[in-house]
Design goal:
By secondary structure, the protein is of the alpha+beta class. The protein folds into two domains: 1-66, no CATH class; 71-171, no CATH class. Helices cover 40% and strands 21% of the residues. The chain has six helices and five strands; from the N terminus they run H-H-H-E-H-E-E-H-E-E-H. The chain has a three-stranded antiparallel sheet with strand order 1-3-2. A two-stranded antiparallel sheet has the order 4-5. The termini are far apart.
């Protein structure tokens, strides 16, 4: 089969306008199908979630069981929390689902996580529940940073120092 209308013209003479339009539509359809196939390889069924996750979540909500929402806390050697151990000193036990992982800083303008992030945008993180995040924010000075977690942009907390009034309370003047 000819690969383009020009090659077809050279072999068989002049193509009709209808034939040219038909071949153009077929080429466009093939391009669209190739893009769909490429996306489905990256995300089976177009979903970032494993099979059965949506059904399980729906069943849990119907039963009144809601999943625990976890919030990223950035681990940084230049910050207050170089490892999860320092996070635990403030919040107690971390959720059992919290694992230390690597992620990428995000911006509000990005639609998807970069395939090859810059090295300076890569950060380590662990996750805490809402109450633990509130406690960390009360006890530390820091900033919110946007990071990619499980395929979506999430606001994480980068603790830089302990708040002074919290240190004074812990120190106990003895007075």
């Amino acid at each position: 089969m000819p690969t383009s209308p020009d090659q077809h013209n050279l072999k068989h003479g002049q193509l009709s306008k209808a034939q040219i339009e038909k071949e153009a539509e077929e080429a466009q359809r093939a391009t669209i199908e190739a893009k769909k196939a490429q996306k489905s390889k990256a995300r089976p069924n177009g979903s970032p979630w494993a099979p059965g996750v949506w059904e399980a979540a729906g069943e849990a909500y119907r039963n009144g069981t809601y999943p625990q929402r976890l919030h990223p806390v950035i681990l940084s050697s230049s910050g207050l929390f170089p490892s999860p151990r320092e996070v635990q000193e403030i919040v107690g036990d971390l959720p059992s689902t919290s694992e230390v992982g690597w992620t990428t800083r995000a911006t509000w303008f990005q639609r998807e996580e970069p395939r090859e992030p810059r090295e300076e945008d890569r950060v380590r993180f662990c996750e805490v529940d809402r109450g633990q995040l509130h406690r960390i924010e009360q006890w530390t000075e820091g900033e919110r940073v946007l990071v990619w977690v499980r395929g979506g942009r999430r606001r994480g907390w980068l603790a830089k120092a302990r708040k002074e009034e919290q240190e004074e309370e812990q120190g106990g003047d003895g007075g």
